[in-house]
Amino acid sequence: MIKKICKRGVPEAITQQTTPVTAFCYNLMLARLIGDIGVSTFSVLSFIYSLANAVLSGVAQGLQPLWGHCYGKQDTEEIGWYFRCGIIINSILSVFIYGVLFVFDTPVIRIFNQDAEFVQTASAALPLFSLSFIPMAINLIYTAYLFSTKRTETADMIAISRGIVVKALAIFVIPMLFGVNAIWIAPLVAEIITLVLAIWLNKITPLIYK
């Protein structure tokens, strides 16, 4: 039982490491490239990310027992139906969240800090940073879907990619290639790469009832 719990829990455990790993990498780069205002900006963006991630992860986690139930009765059609529902719901939610942050970027930042220079810097970064919420929402569904249908190793690969490996590489490499301001689109690039990986892995990893 302990072995099964650990095996099934790895993707979710890695997913929960996304925020601290991202924060660590960002703080290292921002302290070197932008300075204190960059670190302060990310602290606010990280809080907004955590809120968005909680909402989008909630949908994925809510679908897990439904997928598990369908898997238990070997109902492939219903599994696919819940998967499509998850993609649609999280896509709509992520676009809505991004739209709110894009339109109300300055008022949202002013909730956290009233300093004019900080507001200007963070307001410019927020729309770029929050674009990553859209592919992230779909990646969360893929991860939950795969490990809920006993494709844990595949889910692990997606979780490690988006949570640690690809995201860390994007944060370190993109500013060096495209300039300091490009650092805010690093999560978007990482999530898109992971989404392509998730779609491919889902295609080559068939649903097998064990």
Task: Describe the overall structure.
The longest helix has 37 residues, at 36-72. The chain has helices at residues 2-16, 18-33, 36-72, 76-103, 105-112, 116-130, 133-148, 152-178, 186-204. The chain is an all-alpha fold and 210 residues long. The protein has 9 helices and no strands.
Summarize the helix and strand pattern as letters: HHHHHHHHH
The residue fraction in helices comes out at: over 70%
Identify low-pLDDT runs: none
Quote the beta fraction.
Answer: under 5%
Structural class: mainly alpha
Number of strands: 0
User: How large is the count of helical segments?
Assistant: 9
Mean model confidence by pLDDT: 88
How far apart are the first and last residues' alpha carbons, in Å?
16 Å
Radius of gyration: 18 Å
**Major beta sheet, specifics?**
none
Overall morphology: elongated
Main traits of this protein?
single chain, 0% strand, 210 residues, mainly alpha, 9 helices, 86% helix
